[in-house]
Amino acid sequence: MNTPLPDLGDLLHGAVDEIEPADRIDAIRARTANAPTRAARPWLYAAGGVVLATAATVAAFAVLDPSSPKDHGSMVMPTGEDQVVPVYFIGHTPRGPRLFREYDEVPAGDPLQAALDRIQAPADDPDYRTPWAHGSFASARQAQGVIQVEVGSAEVDPDSLSTQQVVLTLQAAVGERVPVRFDDGAPVTADVDALSQVMINDPTEGLEVHEHFTARGAANSFEANVPWEILDDNDVVVAHGFATAAGTGRMYPWEAHIDVSDLPFGYYTFVATTDDPSGGEGGGPDSDTRTIIVR
Questions:
Q1: Alpha-carbon span 79 to 114, nearest angstrom
Q2: 172 and 44 belong to one structural domain
Q3: How many whole angstroms from its chain centre is CA 205?
Q4: Backbone phi, psi, residue 139, to 5°
Q5: Which of 96, 215, 267, 284 has its CA 20 to 30 A from that of 197?
Q6: What's the CATH number where 221 sits?
């Protein structure tokens, strides 16, 4: 059962307390400047390239864990030609497909429409996917306590994971846990079981790192333990450690400061997992990955 929605001011305050916007802008800038070929997004560059504001002009907005009044992500909005929105995509877990979150740069303007447009294009992370092709949805707007979506070519099943992808993405864009209505259908609310039990916020896919970096995310893990590893091109573990996930709600924030100064230059995979195999209901722990480039 959803908890009562708090005042939006509290949501924004919580988001600002828990997130460092400057780090988010630096991560996006580094990713877009140095991303490997497989992570490139032609649709973004065709829209006019990458323009980012300095940290002083960044505002942080709440991204909601559907089981908690406060989540531990952010929507960062530079004041220039681009904005960064949190977007949910479908990925694999031992419990079957679940939703993972990434932060993507889109043209500035209406964040609700930008988020809706973004899920109709491929994810940055090659481990994620979206079933929604361009033209699946026409528009989205918030009015009278709901987010109203005008459906294009899509066939919407209100009970499907792909519909939850849209619901969570749009709720994150507006910073409120409000129902989403597709055309004249019944409003759809968020389902906490749709989420992976561990997510990586930083590093972003294809991030170039130098000597050390900070990994961040959210997790629901046994005894709050979030093990992490770095794998080389041969899937050999070259670094490992753990972070502690603590906070309120269903998904708890975690953070790890990682030294890669001893690693040779090259491509690596950063992996964060849940600690208890029962988190995957007998199939193993949930995990999330990012490609990083050590320079």
A1: 15
A2: yes
A3: 11
A4: -160, 165
A5: 267
A6: 2.60.40.10
Q: What is the pTM of this model?
A: 0.76
Domain count, the chain: 2
Instruction: Pick the more confident residue, 18 or 34.
Output: 34
pLDDT greater than 90 at residue 90: yes
Residues 27 and 97 in one domain: yes
Phi, psi of 195 (to 5 degrees): -85, 145
The answer on 229 and 138 residing in a single domain is no
- C-alpha to C-alpha distance for 101 and 88, rounded to whole angstroms: 4
Q: Is residue 82 located within the same domain as residue 114?
A: yes
Report the chain's mean pLDDT, rounded to a whole number.
77
SS3 260: coil
DSSP of 29-64, one letter per residue? HHHHHH--GGG--HHHHHTT------GGG--EE---
> Measured between alpha carbons, how far is 120 from 140 in angstroms, rounded to an integer?
13
Residue 207 lies in a domain: yes
Q: In which domain, by residue range, is 287 found?
A: 198-294
Question: How confident is the model at residue 249, as a pLDDT?
Answer: 67
Choose the final residue of a domain: 161, 194, 227.
194
Chosen domain end from 194, 210, 237: 194
With 50 as the cut, is the pLDDT of residue 185 above it? Answer: yes
CB burial string 194-220: b at 16+ within 10 A, e below: bbbbbbbbbbbbbbbbeeebebbbbbb
pLDDT at 14: 31
Percent composition of the chain: helix, strand, coil (DSSP 3-state, to 5)? 25, 35, 40
Q: How far apart are CA 228 and CA 191, in angstroms?
A: 27
Question: Which of helix, strand or coil describes residue 119?
Answer: coil
The bridge status of strand 237-244 relative to strand 207-209 is unpaired
- Residue 3 maps to a domain: no
